[in-house]
Write a structure and sequence with these properties.
alpha/beta; 2 helices; 22% helix; globular
Length: 105
Amino acid sequence: MRTHIAVAVKDIEESVGEYTRLLGQGPDLVVPGSYALWRTPALNLSIRKTGEGAGTVRHVGFEKDEAERFTEYRDCNGLLWETFNKDHQAEEINTFWKSADYKPR
């Protein structure tokens, strides 16, 4: 199981450089100017350029191999939680960014 954190950023390229240094590995996927994803053994981190809210957590959750479907719910604090497997995430990425053609390792 990987913990998932999705963060809003103001600049993809600058953020890719910083998070690559912090995580000690490059991203698995970069959609230039829009999105990036890292999948480490413990963490699934996605960043997305947004018009507002840079530096905020967009949502959190868990990547689980055994997840049969994508689910989401809001906790008592209003935070969005997602549960999915790597194929669900790839399908979402490829639907939103058709040019990504992302295939998870």
